[in-house]
Amino acid sequence: MLLYPLMTETIVMSVGGSLIVPDAIDTTFLSNLKNLIDVHTASGRRFIIIAGGGRTARRYQDAAKAVATLEREDLDWMGIHATRLNGHLLRTVFRDRAYRVMITNPDDIHDVPPHERLIIAAGYRPGASTDLRAVQIAERIGAKAMVNLSNTDYVYTDNPKTNPDASAIETITWDNFMKLIPVDWDPGLSAPFDPVAARAATALGLEVAHINGTNLEALSNYLDGKPFVGTRIHP
């Protein structure tokens, strides 16, 4: 259980596509997320939520690879459009609160009026996942920390699905974290945080809280400065 200081600034949060569409669209997760965001925005917090592509992206990528020889850029663009589809789903679910335009270029966050309490974002260009876009948005608004919602409770020493001896990690430096993930980005890569984004976060001195999105109590605890279940990745 980790303790984190109360977050009162704008909260940048990357939501993995595996949470939005683990197989079919998870309406229970969406309902629970909406309820949590409604409560926290009503209390004065501001959120920027970046949607991932997840299984939707991988299904399109796998289908295309099965019938044609593709360039990496082709695979990336399919992933980007999957994030935008998931992002539009989130913006529609939150239409009573969300800013009317979904952000794709991180620079466009500067054009959003400060009174907007919820902004939805998605993928921008090939070469990295939406993790990088979340880091870039955090940089542009001067955030010192961000949330990465995934489908696992922690970052692990290895893939716990294939290695029963993998251990949960509560806190880890970026230098040690990057030893656990691939060096290069690959479209469709499944990792706690993509390597391009990890290097960018390291350069910024950004902290990332890795939390299981199906455990929104852990997220709420983190936002309220209480002990939470998850992994703190830090400089």
Kindly summarize this structure in a few lines.
By secondary structure, the chain is of the alpha/beta class.
> What is the CATH class name?
Alpha Beta
The overall pLDDT, averaged over residues, is: 91
- The fraction of residues assigned to DSSP E strands is 15-25%
CATH architecture: 3-Layer(aba) Sandwich
Poorly predicted runs of 5 or more residues = none
Count of separate structural domains: 1
**Element-by-element helix/strand order:** EHHEHHEHEEEEHHEHE
Number of strands: 9
Largest sheet: 7 strands, mixed
Report the end-to-end length measured between terminal Cα atoms: 19 Å
Oligomer: single chain
DSSP helix count?
8
CATH topology: Carbamate kinase
Radius of gyration, rounded?
17 Å
Residue share in helix: 25-40%
CATH H-tier superfamily: Acetylglutamate kinase-like
Query: Structural class of the helices, strands and pairings?
Result: alpha/beta
Shape: globular
Strand order of the largest sheet: 3-2-1-4-8-9-7
